[in-house]
Amino acid sequence: MYDFKYQLANSQDDAVSAQSSAEDGSFLAGGMTLIPTLKQRLAQPSDLVDLSGISDLIGVSAEGDSVTIGSMTTHAEVASSEIVSSKIPALAALAGNIGDPQVRNRGTIGGSIANNDPAADYPAACVALNATIITNNRKIPADNFFTGLFETALEDGELITAVTFPIPDKAAYAKFPNPASRYAIVGVMVAHTGGETRAAVTGASDSGVFRSSEIENALGDNLDSSAAKAVSISADGLNNDIHASSEYRAHLVSIMASRAATAAG
Known about the structure:
Strand 8 and strand 9 form a beta hairpin. The mean pLDDT is about 95. The longest helix is centred in the last third of the chain and has 19 residues. The protein has twelve helices and 14 strands. The strands form four sheets. A five-stranded antiparallel β-sheet has the order 4-5-10-6-7. It has a four-stranded antiparallel β-sheet with strand order 11-12-13-14, with helices on both faces. About 35% of the residues lie in helices and about 25% in strands. By secondary structure, the protein is α+β, with helices and mostly antiparallel strands. The relative contact order is 0.12. It has three domains: about 45 residues, Uridine Diphospho-n-acetylenolpyruvylglucosamine Reductase, domain 2 (2-Layer Sandwich); about 110 residues, 2-Layer Sandwich (Uridine Diphospho-n-acetylenolpyruvylglucosamine Reductase, domain 3); about 100 residues, 2-Layer Sandwich (Enolase-like, domain 1), CATH 3.30.390.
């Protein structure tokens, strides 16, 4: 690990100021990806700005037809939240199956989506539920937020403060996890909200999370699991590695979509 300056921020303004004034500063949320990256000397920030001391970035609230989760809320807190469990049980279930207990008690929703790992679970939830990512500067629809492999629409110094999820009529997530890391080899979140059906796929593509129009059309308004299972997904552009071939991942997309639809129904 290279040397860096550690700063514990006590407010959003403090964090943004510290990061922007640093030569090459990075925000530190749960550290589930950043800390291993630093240990392997794959990154060399001049400063780490720790967000764990900013209390107004933590918590869950419901208002009207949406649920808002602070960016520093851990996966375990999302999973155990009575609000999330009652309003969007699919999201609570997704959070409760991320990694292992150590990861769930340190990792945060904001850190996960800012990192945008192509096999992470939260990006699929954000896209399928048509979430809005709120930063210190603006509000970004999930469809526009995830731009590629480990890439997002965040600008330098922009801090995720919360994520707002519309409450769906029906939703569920199903994933085929890597048995060691628990990352999704393929994960599919399906949701029907206000007359629109959305299906988001994670783990499969080398460019990260994506919507599948084929699955969405097959699911229809009733989230037809048998129709989703019958969809033939192209293997073009899908990951091909030691864990699964692109053809196998293509097959898993329709299978996971069908399982999610069954759970949602």
